[in-house]
Amino acid sequence: MLREMHLVWQFNRGNTEALREIYEEHKHELVTLAAALLLDKAEAEDVVHDVFVGFMRAGGRFRMTGSLKGFLATCVANRARNQNKSKWKHASEESAATEQAAPDHERPDLAAMFGEELKCVGGALAELPYEQREAVVLRLCSGMRFQAIARTQGVSTNTVQGRYRYGLDKLKTLLDGKLNL
Amino acid sequence: MKKTDEISQIIRQIRVPASSNLDERIHHEIDHAVLSAATAPAGPELTFGEMFALFLKRRSARYTLATTLGLAVLVALFLIRPAPSAWAMEQAVEALKKYKGLQFTGYVTRDGKTIPIDLWARSDVTGDSVEAGLAKAGDITVWTRDNKTYTYDQAEKVVYVEPGITLGLDPWPGPKLLTLLNKMKDYQALEGDDPATGRPRVVVTCSTDSMGGPESFRMEFDVRSKLLVSVKTWGNFRQEGAPEAAFEKVLFFENLPDSALDFQPPAGTPFTNMPLTIPDAGTRLPALSDPNCGISAEGMTREQACQKILGELWEAQLHTNFARVRQLLPYAANWSDDFMLAECNREAMVQVVKIGGIEKTGSSNLGPLALVPGWLRYQGGSVVEVWMIVQFRETDHGTSCVIFGPHGYALNAKG
User: Fold this and answer.
1) Contact check, Cβ <8 Å, A172/B1
2) Which of A66, B55, B108, B234 is 20 to 30 Å from B13 at the Cα level?
3) B301: which DSSP letter?
4) DSSP alpha helix (H) spans, A39-156
5) Structural domain of residue B239, as residue ranges?
6) Taking 70 as the threshold, does the pLDDT of residue B178 lie above it?
7) Is the Cβ–Cβ distance between A38 and A51 less than 8 Å?
8) Last residue of a domain, which of B252, B273, B294?
């Protein structure tokens, strides 16, 4: 935490090496988070890129009130949610005119993104309603508290806990017999 | 059936590493963040007055494009006006034709400080575009060479490079420009005598929209020589407040030697790319954030969106669909049809040869920016390369993009 505060302090004074360190330290987690939310690596990287660009712009006046990791993860979640809304809207507009897409669990890009072993996890995540997926991913991939997720989603903590529980239950059903641990 | 904690464990195992492409993009942004952290951000074309203010606080000389364009527009505008004086277009054309070089000397006001400025420029053989230029103000020196614009910041001891000629004077105040300028409006001309010299003078006032927002001018012409002798500019439509720039001396030359336009930074000075940004984008040009301007970029990659919006712009230009041009390129929103038509005729584009991929990315306070090249065939068969800046926005209506404007001006493409 002290190191993180020092990095932020340096970043606020225009030290770009601190900015690079922040990026290097969080990039994989943030891309993982965005990819698990959006299930599309290119979109995930666009989201992370935009979050960092926004973060850079805050240089000189950024005030860290919690953990930097939590802050960046929240930014990624917010952008991913907007991105998902846009994608959904666009897809619903075009659905009548396009052919039926392959079921999510058969998407070849999921294997490329998550690895052959976990591709069915990606497929299963895709089957969840977005709010449930977000609750599960923020909790498990980013270690975010339910209270923080609730603030991000703009709902009560109980609602988030419910979404998380329902999400996990559905995943359990969807993945049953598909993974050998 | 698996237990819930087993599923949790599986989700925690997900790892999607960041690609080298993302690393590259972020480090590129970080490189540019150094610049914006150190001073006010540089950016594309601003107002006429800020052309020189730029030299003081910003590193980009590209602002000179819009500002000097405004100057050129107004010079010609005045000259071609069926004025109370005995001026005629032919005379104005002849007066300008023989001059291939000019020098502006004056000052700019920035944050209450007055800084002297000196600008030299030479047109190409056609008399339509700047071939070379050199401007000095405070710690900043800007010059052009080989279709690139260089900005040396003495305080930071670094040279910023950007593609294209962004120094300004496009179009050069030559005969071809007059046709375009003839369509301009919103000006007044008053004729009188200069008490100091006794020579008859004409004072022209005018305002216009530019990529950097509103600008207004007050320019003084010598009636006998038909040439501009002084100019003041404001960053508003009504010449309110202190002028952003005042050029008290304007000299025209039949030619300028290379030595007048040469500049060498101190040996060992590092060269780096100029960042791409639009300072105060939403404030300067509110239409940039107007969801009614531009196109939706939903479901498209940024590259696809750039291709689409530029294709539509040039298609609209080819078919003189000015309403569509105004919608895609909001800084032209207040241009009249006559002016647009004159602009189209001046450009005389007959075919869009190719729209390239995103060459450079940046950001403004509205969102990401993309710099995209395009190749256009003009009447006569020549192909020119142009760069356009596309602004992306996230609004309640989703992702969309709009064209900010050109980056520098057209270059003759090889082949």
Assistant:
1) yes
2) A66
3) -
4) 41-57, 68-94, 108-114, 119-127, 130-140, 146-153
5) 34-273
6) no
7) no
8) B273
* pLDDT above 80: residue A24: yes
pLDDT tens digits for range B78-102: 333 333 433 444 565 667 777 888 8
Task: Tell me, yes or no, whether B9 lies in a domain.
Answer: no
Distance, CA of B315 to CA of B55 (rounded, Å): 36
CATH number at residue B181: 2.50.20.10
Flag whether pLDDT at B70 surpasses 50.
no
CB atoms within 10 A of CB B355: 20
Which residues lie closer than 8 Å to B393 by C-beta, 6 or more apart? B288, B289, B291, B294, B366, B367, B399, B400, B401, B402
- Contact present, B176 and B346 (Cβ < 8 Å): yes
B351 touches chain A (CB under 8 A): no
The sheet that has B187-193: what strands, in order across it? Answer: B187-193, B200-210, B213-222, B227-234, B245-253, B101-110, B113-123, B130-137, B140-145, B148-153, B158-163, B271-273
Query: What ipTM, to 2 d.p.?
Result: 0.85
Question: A113 and chain B: CB distance < 8 Å anywhere?
Answer: yes
Lookup: tokens for B69? 């364009």
Q: Are residues B89 and B186 in the same domain?
A: yes
**Same structural domain for residues B198 and B261?**
yes
The structure's pTM equals 0.52
Q: Which residue of A has its CA nearest to B368?
A: A50
Mode of pairing for the β-strands spanning B383-395 and B411-412:
antiparallel
Overall fold of domain A105-175: Arc Repressor Mutant, subunit A (1.10.10)
Number of independent structural domains in chain B:
2
Residue B313 has pLDDT above 90, yes or no: yes
Partner B contacted by A36 (CB < 8 A): yes
Residues of A in contact with B303 (CB under 8 A): none
Q: Between B2, B27, B33, which is nearest A172 by CB?
A: B2
B348 and B286 within one domain:
yes
Q: Which residues contact B144 (CB under 8 A, 6 or more apart)?
A: B130, B132, B133, B134, B150, B165, B167
Radius of gyration of chain B (CA): 23
Taking only the tens place, the pLDDT of each residue in A30-50 is: 999 999 898 888 889 999 999
Residue pair A105/A120 in contact (Cβ under 8 Å)? The answer is: yes
The correct CATH number of A1-97 out of 1.10.287.1700, 1.10.1740.10, 3.40.50.720, 2.70.70.10 is 1.10.1740.10
* Residue B401: strand pairing partners: B295, B392
Residue A64 is predicted with a pLDDT of 66
